[in-house]
Amino acid sequence: MLARSCLRSTRTFAGAKNGAINFTKRAASSSSSGSTAPAQPVMLNIAAVASTAVAIGSIAWYYHLYGPTANAMTPAEEGLHPTKYPWVHQQALKTFDHQALRRGFQVYREVCASCHSLSRVPYRALVGVLLTVDEAKALAEENEYDTEPNDEGEIEKRPGKLSDYLPAPYKNDEAARAANNGALPPDLSLITKARHGGCDYIFSLLTGYPEEPPAGAQVGAGLNFNPYFPGTGIAMARVLYDGLVEYEDETPASTSQMAKDVVEFLNWAAEPEMDDRKRMGFKVLTVTTVLFALSVWVKRYKWAHIKSRKIVYDPPKVGDGPAPRY
């Protein structure tokens, strides 16, 4: 009996010792994991900040290389920067002023067409915007165009049709240079898109001729001073003067009025589809907004029973069920 009790007490002491050791290990492991737990979010924050800094630095470096506008000349040689004007047709919900377009086309025909061409504008594009069908046909028939070669190989002339394009004032570039002291008048079909500043530049150029060049300005032979033209020396002289054109609607034909009208007409010539594009864009935005609202409602309806449910863990109670078997 004494030996059995001694053996039993020895086993109890050994079990208590092992339990204490295991408890110490668990406590140490929990304390070590608790000490490293706060360090993990700090490392994640550092990594996020570093990656954000790298991304911003990459974007800044790319903009430094390719973002700024590359100027081929110095600002003095580039010309005076044009004033920003509030053009109505450039607003999102506004269209072209068709009366201004008709007046601008009249200015082009009576003033600009003697030197500049509109090779990308057909007569049919004028119908419904500037002219009626009969007016456009009559205007086209004022000019003659080449026909297809006949059986003898000769090319005859025919009156113009709506499918023809506005005629050029010169037969070729050489004839244009010869008539303008070596300067080639540019085609005006895309002039508002081909010049930096667009409408503002063209308007400032047409109205920017001073009466006399400023003191110290050097202008080459055969050139005219205009501060908005690159180099300030332009071959085209001033062409717009007050009362030069007599408008059909009796609008006062001041220099600024004629410049404004012809600039609006040239902007229409560069993008005649602008009104249709704005109209289509408004329709697309309206339909997209409705579809987005419907998609949000459908998503909330479909996911309502999933997002509103509650999952609760119900552990088994002690004492329920049959007693365990050993």
What distance lies between the first and last C-alpha atoms, to the nearest angstrom? Answer: 28 Å
- What is the second-level CATH architecture of the domain at 76-212 and 219-276? Orthogonal Bundle
Tell me about the largest β-sheet.
2 strands, antiparallel
- The number of E-state strands comes to 4
Hey, roughly how much beta strand do the residues contain? under 5%
Regions with little confidence, pLDDT below 50 for 5+ residues = 1-10, 16-37
CATH-defined superfamily of the domain at 76-212 and 219-276: Cytochrome c-like domain
Q: And the CATH topology of the domain at 76-212 and 219-276?
A: Cytochrome Bc1 Complex, Chain D, domain 2
Class of secondary structure makeup: mainly alpha
Question: Nearest-angstrom radius of gyration?
Answer: 41 Å
**What sequence of helices (H) and strands (E) makes up the elements?**
HHHHHEEHHHEEHH
Number of helices: 10
If you average the pLDDT, what whole number results? 86
State the share of residues found in helices, binned by percent.
40-55%
CATH class of the domain at 76-212 and 219-276: Mainly Alpha
**Shape call:** elongated
Q: Could you give the order of strands across the largest sheet?
A: 1-2
Family: Belongs to the cytochrome c family.
Biased composition (Acidic residues): 143-154
EC number: 7.1.1.8
Catalytic activity: a quinol + 2 Fe(III)-[cytochrome c](out) = a quinone + 2 Fe(II)-[cytochrome c](out) + 2 H(+)(out)
